[in-house]
Amino acid sequence: MKKYLLILGLLLAFSKPDFAQIKPDTSFYLKNDKNIYAVVISKNNNIVYQHFFNGKSDATMMNDQSLTKSVLSILIGIAIDKHCITSLDEPISRYFPQLAKDKDQRKQNITIRQIMNQASGLYHEDLNNLKDYLGKKNQSEYVLKQNMVSEPGSTFYYNNAASHLLSVILTKATGMTTFDFARKNLFDPMGITDVNWIKMNDGFYDGSGLLSLRMHTQDMVKIGGLLINNGFYGNKRLVPASWIKALLRPDNTFDTQWGFKDSKYALCWYHFTYNGTSAIYALGWGGQFLIAIPKYRAVIAVNASIADESAIMESARFTDKIFPVLYDYIRKLK
Fold first, then answer.
1. Surface-to-core class of residue 115, CB atoms within 10 Å of its CB (0-12 exposed, 13-18 middle, 19+ buried)
2. What is the DSSP letter of 19?
3. For labelling, which of 91, 184, 247, 269 has a CA lying 20 to 30 Å from the CA of 299?
């Protein structure tokens, strides 16, 4: 009888691999991480794992930090498709005509692409004194008036202040606020109703992530799904295929010294290879991640504390310890 029950148990275990699959939250690093808030994974457009930690829930509005930039990147692609913006190589002087009077004529030739690649050469905020930048009466005007720090297009320097200009450009190009444009063309069609987006003092919605877009983690997964579904949400095309291609396979990238090992940056997204598998991801301060892995048609969204004292270590803990567990889980799922 015992032998029969043992054989039956083995048959059930091997015939139902999903039930035999070890859940990621059994990982030592996840169970003992006091700073992580949420991990949501989809595969083949279905949520296969969703867990909240440290008092958070599916109702928590998460502070997405610089994931804001990556969402804005998708909106820029939609605006180009709608002919509101001519191209990535359009000079920003079209939207800031005051640059024609600037003593540094190089500013007139800065392009949208260069801003999205963090290579505009414009002034960047002091990360050790963000209150100074955030306290300005008009952040976008202030950035444009400062001296250039490098030749446009030549040097990668992560620049929140310049990134905010993308929101200003989107608003001027579309005649709609960034938030309204996002609601009409992205959030509403995806059924994303709970969103909080804060304006800078200049009256434009934050494009830097310093004030941050706030959403539910499970809704951020939907946005990541656009990258593995060629711009479709269900049977609705929201993002042009040409823009998805540009994001997945950018013409030019810059090496970064943070995030996953050997990451490269382009158009407000990062790229890396893990165990021979290519992935694209968005990264925010403190360990906010949105990762799309086209090979497995999988998306991972992660939120964590943004406390400065734990931010760098939390991001490293995720890339080095937690992500390998999640990747292995995704890889084994059918």
1. buried
2. H
3. 184
Tokens describing residue 319: 């890339």
Question: What are the domain boundaries of the chain?
Answer: 22-60+216-334, 67-193+207-214
Q: How far apart are CA 290 and CA 279, in angstroms?
A: 10
Identical fold, 22-60+216-334 and 67-193+207-214: yes
Cα 42 from Cα 129, distance rounded (Å) = 38
Looking up tokens 């139902």 gives 16
Q: What is the CATH number of domain 22-60+216-334?
A: 3.40.710.10
CA-nearest of 205, 201, 172, 175 to 71 is: 205
The angle that helices 217-228 and 241-248 make with each other, rounded to 10 degrees, is 100
> In terms of Cα–Cα distance, which of 288, 258, 286, 251 is closest to 272?
258
**Is the pTM value of this prediction over 0.90?**
yes
If you classify domain 67-193+207-214 with CATH, what class do you get? alpha beta
